[in-house]
Amino acid sequence: MVDVDGGARGGRFLASICGGGPLYGTGVELEPIGTMRTCFPEKFGIPRQSGLVPLARGVLRFADTQPAAVWRDALRGLEGFSHAWVTFVFHEAVAEGWKALVRPPRLGGKEKMGVWATRSPHRPNFLGLSLLEIEAVDGEMPAIRFRGVDLLDGTPVVDLRPYHPEHDFPRGATRDGWIAGAPEPAAAVAWSEAALRDLPGAVTRTPVGMPGYAEAEARSLVEALVALDPRPAHQRGQSGEWAMRLLGFDVKIRMEGARATVVALT
Amino acid sequence: MVDVDGGARGGRFLASICGGGPLYGTGVELEPIGTMRTCFPEKFGIPRQSGLVPLARGVLRFADTQPAAVWRDALRGLEGFSHAWVTFVFHEAVAEGWKALVRPPRLGGKEKMGVWATRSPHRPNFLGLSLLEIEAVDGEMPAIRFRGVDLLDGTPVVDLRPYHPEHDFPRGATRDGWIAGAPEPAAAVAWSEAALRDLPGAVTRTPVGMPGYAEAEARSLVEALVALDPRPAHQRGQSGEWAMRLLGFDVKIRMEGARATVVALT
């Protein structure tokens, strides 16, 4: 149902799916407005917050639940903004359920916090929220290219709004709870000769639809991700080898203390 | 299903409600984690963004879908933060549907913008997002008292996370699109003698469960709300009288140009 304003009557109501009757909940079933393709085909190695790695790219393509013309209208004016809040579903967490108490990686996985004091994916309603930089709005597709993403490839996106500098910022001082005393881990990154030789071939294996990377960009991306120390919280400080899937290749890293070497791209 | 960590297997799945079969959407039906009682029983006069009126109070009470002990665990550590992002459902917009193009009040209701470039309630999935100041976390109820709310009384809340000063802020300069050239309206506020006499009686009529206000606080709240010029965008600049419902009383205001008089509290 598209009305004269180019709008659409929306939201799918459980009553109409299930045949009516009183229902708990809000009556709103989340329907993706689109899917985000990102450089991260697997969870391991994704930055723990948005904005940490500007070169981490994502492309939001809108769903075919609406004609492209409706999405094009819905985008009007967004190109004037540099940043947007993207609300998405932690779709890989849904089947696992949620927990009231979680162990934040920043606390080394040792201490428990309430889920409302964290950004754990295992939360009621499984909603995620990321502040992303808008690289470009493609009115033709339509699609939006983002930078600084921390989303798994294929993430369903359910809402989008511009960053509002007057209102999206606390007035007065903030208190930052447990995160204030828990710095992000960091690692120094070196490359092996072999990994540098692997780079040109690895970049060409990017699956169709994923964001594209030039060779130098892919090198910077790998470096920035490894510098965040992707080791699971409980393995932090351990020496050994880890592999992170990125675009169409595996990044093999060897870690000793806070020093990382990119060993190979396979 | 509460597990040993005090967590709960969560999310209601359409498959289990509807008897299975493939479904569109995310399979996540939004279930309220609680309901926000606020000082705003009606839409008219609610500040257009969170944080504009610090004295605008809200109390989030958690739903009885989980034992109080589970919600208490889920809150652990939140008391250390000064601000939280609250995700909610624009429940009064759901039945009206959404539109791809909207007329933002800040543009005087004359110009159309795409819904993704705005915070219109009439958006796909009907999700709202407000940055609110945490006044107190009440572990006993459990409940959370907020300041600076812009939510209708009775709003279903679906997610909650602390404001994170390192990541919830754009790195580098921002571009602020159409809002940059569209300042918020403002009005100068005076009180009639009659309205001042009405104040003590009006405050005592606050319905049970709504946030409480001392007389002086209620006076400051009324003043701050009227100063935002609550007139609908297309009536801005018109002279006349408007009434705004607040707590348990009506605020009657007369406006001439950008000057407002609080005429009576009835």
Task: Characterise the protein shown here.
The structure is a homodimer of 266-residue chains. Chain A is built from 4 helices and 14 strands. In chain A, the strands form 4 sheets. In chain A, strands 3-4-9-8-5-10 form a 6-stranded antiparallel β-barrel. A 4-stranded mixed β-sheet of chain A has the order 11-14-13-12. In chain A, strands 1-2 form a two-stranded antiparallel ribbon. Chain A folds into 2 domains: 2-162, YaeB-like (Elongation Factor Tu (Ef-tu), domain 3), CATH 2.40.30; 185-265, no CATH class. With 266 residues, chain A is α+β, with helices and mostly antiparallel strands. Helix content of chain A is 14%, strand content 29%. Chain A is globular. At the A-B interface, strand 1, helix 1, strand 2, helix 2 and strand 5 of A face strand 1, helix 1, strand 2, helix 2 and strand 5 of B.
Present the secondary structure layout.
The structure is a homodimer of 266-residue chains.
Chain A: E1 12-13, H1 14-18, E2 28-29, E3 34-38, E4 57-62, H2 68-75, E5 83-89, E6 101-102, E7 113-114, E8 127-138, E9 143-147, E10 155-162, E11 188-191, H3 193-203, H4 215-226, E12 240-246, E13 249-256, E14 259-265
